[in-house]
Design a protein that fits this description.
There is one protein chain. The protein is an alpha+beta fold. About 25% of the residues lie in helices and about 25% in strands. Strands 1, 2, 3, 6, 7, 9, 13 and 16 form an eight-stranded antiparallel beta sheet that branches.
Length: about 240
């Protein structure tokens, strides 16, 4: 297999949600009384991340927005898995039943023949959505300039180690700079209203959120996690 320089495992899906939906989410966020200082994994450190955040998952008044976002992300994940089927089969060594009823290992080549329903079922069997956090970065001062990845071992339950893919959905683009920058890939993702960014969570995709200039930046962000071990492998 020859190397493909375009395969940096970073995907950007344009128009994942309509611009009007982005504007409505942004307006609702601006008027919310539930905004809190943005946190990193170990707490509030404005020198690392300076934002106002709002976790919408589990809040009844945000249920419709959460559903819209998760649906858009799931559609993006299916596209990602078609491009990178190893995202599922490499860590899990999945098996399927052959036409004669015998089990065999699922191969990357099998994904091309899967319809959306079959791939959706496989994805839901293996993966689960994380809680959604809305983030507001003020022009000239907000940002997440610290180089970081999304895996860390602080959580006693190990939830943070189940994070497999990260995603960011850009809710506006009426500012300069403010890119999501990936260190080793030497790539800056310019925010575009309604665009969805998907990438791996490990240190290989160390990244930062650059400070917006000339306007505030609004994003929705979360992770796609593996199902827990009992769901995937049973109690044995």
């Amino acid at each position: 297999m020859t190397a493909d320089p375009q395969r940096d495992f970073i995907e950007v899906i344009h128009n994942a949600i309509p611009a009007e939906t982005c504007a409505a989410i942004q307006a609702k966020m601006r008027s919310s009384a539930q905004l809190l200082p943005g946190e990193v994994g170990s707490g509030v450190f404005p020198e690392l991340k300076h934002s106002k955040d709002l976790r919408i998952s589990g809040q009844p008044e945000w249920r419709q927005v959460e559903t819209q976002l998760q649906q858009a992300v799931f559609s993006g994940i299916l596209s990602y898995l078609r491009r990178y089927p190893q995202a599922l089969i490499s860590p899990l060594m999945l098996q399927v039943q052959d036409s004669d009823g015998r089990p065999r290992r699922l191969a990357a080549e099998d994904f091309a023949g899967m319809d959306d329903a079959s791939l959706s079922e496989l994805a839901r069997t293996c993966l689960r959505p994380g809680a959604i956090n809305l983030q507001w970065y003020a022009a000239g001062e907000g940002g997440y300039p610290y180089w970081h990845c999304e895996l860390y071992p602080r959580d006693p339950a190990g939830e943070t180690l189940h994070r497999h893919l990260l995603w960011t959905l850009y809710l506006n683009d009426d500012f300069a700079e403010g890119e999501t920058e990936f260190l080793f890939q030497q790539r800056k993702i310019a925010p575009r209203t309604g665009s969805l960014l998907i990438a791996p969570t490990a240190f290989t995709h160390t990244h930062r959120g650059n400070r917006p200039v000339g306007g505030d930046k609004f994003i929705a962000t979360s992770w796609v996690l593996f199902q827990n071990a009992q769901t995937l492998f049973g109690s044995n």
